[in-house]
Structure to design on (401 residues):
């Protein structure tokens, strides 16, 4: 009986582990990874590299992880290719999913989203593709241009699909601002006209704790809140910079949404009111202007880098007041795990930083010397391993003690 109970608990634990999905910026798009036992400092030459793979092609896709497999997209000879690895870096499979962006900053943009045996990829050409997770067979495909009268962008579509329950959400823009599709068939469930803006490179966010569960995203000139069930526009807030480019997914906590303009425009904090049917501006910070590095909220503070303002910032979540703005590292993206910030700069510096409102406290750092092109892909942490993608190379570092 005791052995049977142990076996049952073991199977149950494995089942929970297997169901965990790491998508764009973690399990919930916050940039926070629920890891423990990670190193609090690194050797001078960095943590041990477990493996690397050097034939991903061009791109900026982060890794997604599900059911013990690692997924990442790249562009090889102009063709978008999904690569599948095991935890030891062995290439298990790859699949061409269609043409990728070749006009400027060439390569795959989308981080794959995995849900209940299906993989969702969004190409820079605006094609949403659904693959079978086991076989990589194409199950269905939609084009934002041909199916939804959308329009591609100056730097190509750059968005990771959002999957919630039976829906997958994308933002074609224009008259079909945001669209909900049946995740199994690709059939349209609803479309929302929003404010008629173009898309703006933003991966949408789901707020499930509001009286009206909603999808929040940033379009070219507005932040939108949309009823996830019906597609009704709940609210919109004017929001634009000089280029209508807004790649940062908003950061949400306690009815508050941190929206970072980038391109020298700063940030605003919105508060949801009236059961999530309205918003009001709480504060504006004209200096925190991360271009596409994201932010994380730790306690009462938000941490992020600037863009035109080339500092790293700690901002009071409630007031927007800068606790510090300091240099010491080039601008970049940031995630968080086990009490530490992981900052990856666009100069190829990987830094371990203690989150404190007193100063930008770099504990350790090392250079990323492999790979090609820009250091723009967001890093990922899973099972004590730090995954860094730099162009055609994916690297895995052991960061657990």
């Amino acid at each position: 009986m005791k052995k049977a109970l142990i076996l049952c608990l073991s199977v149950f634990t494995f089942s929970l582990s297997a169901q965990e999905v790491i998508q764009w910026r973690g399990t919930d798009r916050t940039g926070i990874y629920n890891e423990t036992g990670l190193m609090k400092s690194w050797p001078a030459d960095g943590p041990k590299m477990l493996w690397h793979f050097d034939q991903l092609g061009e791109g900026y896709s982060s890794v997604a992880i599900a059911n013990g497999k690692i997924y990442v997209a790249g562009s090889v000879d102009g063709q978008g290719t999904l690569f599948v690895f095991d935890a030891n870096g062995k290439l298990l499979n790859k699949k061409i999913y269609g043409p990728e962006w070749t006009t400027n900053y060439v390569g795959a943009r989308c981080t794959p989203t995995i849900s209940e045996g299906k993989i969702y990829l969004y190409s820079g050409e605006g094609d949403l593709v659904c693959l079978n997770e086991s076989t990589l067979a194409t199950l269905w495909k939609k084009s934002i241009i041909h199916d939804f009268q959308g329009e591609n962008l100056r730097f190509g579509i750059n968005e990771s699909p959002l999957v919630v329950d039976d829906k997958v959400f994308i933002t074609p823009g224009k008259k079909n601002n945001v669209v909900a599709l049946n995740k199994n068939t690709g059939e349209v469930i609803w479309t929302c006209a929003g404010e008629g803006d173009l898309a703006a490179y933003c991966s949408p966010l789901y707020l499930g704790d509001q009286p009206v569960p909603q999808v929040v995203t940033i379009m070219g000139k507005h932040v939108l809140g949309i009823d996830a069930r019906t597609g009704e526009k709940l609210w919109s807030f004017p929001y634009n910079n000089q280029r209508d480019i807004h790649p940062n997914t908003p950061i949400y906590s306690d009815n508050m949404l941190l929206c970072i303009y980038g391109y020298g425009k700063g940030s605003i904090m919105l508060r949801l009111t009236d059961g999530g049917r309205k918003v009001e501006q709480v504060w504006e910070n004209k200096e925190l202007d991360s271009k596409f590095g994201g932010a994380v909220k730790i306690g009462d503070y938000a941490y992020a880098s600037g863009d035109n303002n080339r500092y790293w910032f700690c901002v009071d979540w409630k007031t927007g007041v800068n606790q510090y703005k300091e240099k010491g590292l080039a601008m970049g993206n940031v995630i968080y795990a086990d009490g530490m910030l992981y900052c990856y700069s666009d100069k190829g510096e990987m830094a371990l930083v203690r989150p404190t409102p007193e100063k930008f406290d770099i504990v350790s750092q090392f250079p990323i010397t492999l790979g090609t092109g820009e250091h723009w892909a967001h890093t990922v942490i899973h099972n004590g391993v730090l995954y860094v993608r730099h162009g055609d190379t994916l690297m895995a570092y052991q960061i657990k003690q």
The first strand starts at residue 21 and ends at 22. Residues 1-18 have pLDDT under 50 and may be disordered.
